[in-house]
Amino acid sequence: MTFLETEEVTETGSDLVHLNREQIPLTRIPTLVDIDLSDQLPDFPELNRIGMIQVKTGLFVSKTDHIHKLILEAMKDPRFKLIIAPEFSYQNKHKYLTSEAHQSYLSELIDSSKESSSLIIPGSMRWKDISYHASYAIHNGEVLIEQFKGYPEVPLYSFEHKGYNAGIEICSDSGSFALKGERNLDVLLTVSCGLFPLPTENAMSNNNFAIVSRVLGHDALRPGGIGIVNDGYLRGHLIYRKIQDGEIEILHSNFPSLETK
To answer: Which single residue of 5, 15, 199, 229 has CA 20 to 30 Å from 51?
Structure first.
């Protein structure tokens, strides 16, 4: 498991330095975290090497160009099976991208994915007005799903990727697949910004494990299924496996107190 931190993002790319494993990064500069779970997830060979885009996001925070460049850079690395960014990754300082900007970013991701082996989850994109807030699953030049936020007002769909039955939930929609009655997902991908109703400084403490677990929506997974969360508010991430109903195992988190249950 290797941590790579972007110290500076420039027009020509990003410089990468090693990040100490015990250090919880607080910088607002986007970070590419290389997570190798091949030992823990031999049964998920198409998803067990993750490029996690770790960055502080928020309603009026715009780092879209930096995040976009980092995703494109990660897509060139053949080791990554999945690249995932947090909620609010694509927006401008006025919250909403123009329809033209949204389409431009999306088109470049789609075109670039033709040369990449990764499944791309570019966090969420907001454009035009409050009704247009969606996440995407992109692979090999195709959009596998466009998932809007706002269940049950908007429909929620799963998608297939290399034999996996997968779904995307955006922050406050966490738990919607379970609410819908889904119990057989192989993979649940959650992009969020403030998913955990806890102060940043103790959000991942052992005392709060039950609260953290409760908002993850893992009931929608089959036993043995995995959940992958990227949260922009905490600038954190975690990967877990469902053991059985009501029980999960934390496989990886950048918060040391959540490394194991």
So the answer is: 199
On whether the 2-258 domain is CATH 3.60.110, my answer is yes
The answer for residues whose C-beta is within 8 angstroms of residue 153's C-beta and 6 or more apart is none
Cβ-in-10-Å burial (0-12, 13-18, 19+) of 152 comes to exposed
Give 122-132 pLDDT, tens digit per residue: 999 999 988 89
Burial grade of 210 (CB within 10 A; 0-12, 13-18, 19 or more): exposed
